[in-house]
């Protein structure tokens, strides 16, 4: 029943999106330039492409109702802020007990009544009992055990925020900020199937080395200036590609809640380029995820993880590579589904 409702709801949403698109392009061509001009704030935007220029120009002539925020939005926004805003008197043991025993068909973790904020605060500030390599996966990351016996992944910062990744959509190391951005964006979009993630700074000599396992120590090099740098253990980890602390001795990274749940892993049918037999719910769920990945520009979801029958957004580090490029391919699950009538009567 749940999945049918979901599928139906999403079908309506898709239909609405398509209609909106048609309407949008129709109105774009018939923009009424006599209506009062509303000067939208200037954006740092590449308007060399004509379609972007047209959209930007059209925004100045939007009818007045589009300039007022929908009052329904205020309630949603308030609830969202409240879920992050209640971080007083946090008891680590009870936060992790609630989080790990959470069982719900609508979200991977508790988020209401300040639960999301408490989880982030614990991820960001809890005392670290030990640090090890997290060898699973292609990218360097560490595993922390924090107060309350909770495991946390730590994906270190590799690039400054302003760095632009050139080359293919898969190029470069993971971006730690993409993990954190993905979490907040998913919460805003009401897609609550993503592990909480927050920026954390740890001191290499005070927080990491004293509690590093021998395995981790064997992948740490001391540079000539006495600074300890980690090359870690992972598929692409190389001894000449280390992560070093900043001048103040701190390593910045994304602290991501470790998911101690039974997950099933599937190859994405779009990676295999075959039309697999998928349930309608799964296909709609994949399209949902494709739209999300398009927004963060993550072209790296070759496989996807499923908990129960819900795809979860695990590993969002390959987003935010190059702000000047929109990789439309990421939307293939959306545009191919409709052209190939895979969804039957939608
Ligand atoms: C969030 O918390 C701050 C500080 O406690 C408070 O000033 C602010 O009004 C709160 N915001 C909301 C939306 O609850
Ligand atoms: C989730 O949904 C299934 C049926 O789809 C139901 O049996 C189960 O009780 C639900 N679990 C929770 C925690 O609501
Ligand atoms: C590290 O060494 C490998 C060869 O082992 C090389 O391909 C790679 O480019 C080197 N990385 C850097 C940052 O120099």
TrEMBL record:
Keywords, sorted A to Z: ATP-binding, Disulfide bond, Glycoprotein, Golgi apparatus, Manganese, Membrane, Metal-binding, Nucleotide-binding, Transmembrane, Transmembrane helix
TM region positions: 6-28
InterPro entries, per the entry: FAM20, FAM20_C
Listed cofactors: Mn(2+)
Domain (FAM20 C-terminal) ranges: 225-274, 279-339
One Pfam family linked to the record: Fam20C
Annotated binding of Mn(2+), by residue: 174, 315
Catalytic residues of the enzyme: 300
Cellular localisation: Golgi apparatus
GO cellular component: Golgi apparatus
Similarity comment: Belongs to the FAM20 family.
Name of the protein described by the UniProt record: FAM20 C-terminal domain-containing protein
Organism: Leptidea sinapis
